[in-house]
Amino acid sequence: MARWQEPLDAVVPAPLAGPGARIAACSLRVFGGLTKAWATPKDASPKRNFTDLLMIAAVLRRFDVVAVHEVRGNLRALQHPMKVLGAVQ
Question: Whole-angstrom Cα distance, residue 6 to residue 14?
Fold first, then answer.
């Protein structure tokens, strides 16, 4: 994760202290299932893995309010970034 912080800072700077809110809308294409691995094996389905979820959480953490689109009925993949982010209101 450390190697991704600098490129992430260039694209989505961390929020500044003070008044105001940062708002994001994310379309996480077919966000539902999860391959319980850090790297997705070639023929695995679904393709999303734990590394993907940590990267998604790293981006979402930079915003105060986030709307997530395309979440499927299976909430397994959504639950993991929520755990990483902590209590969500």
Answer: 11
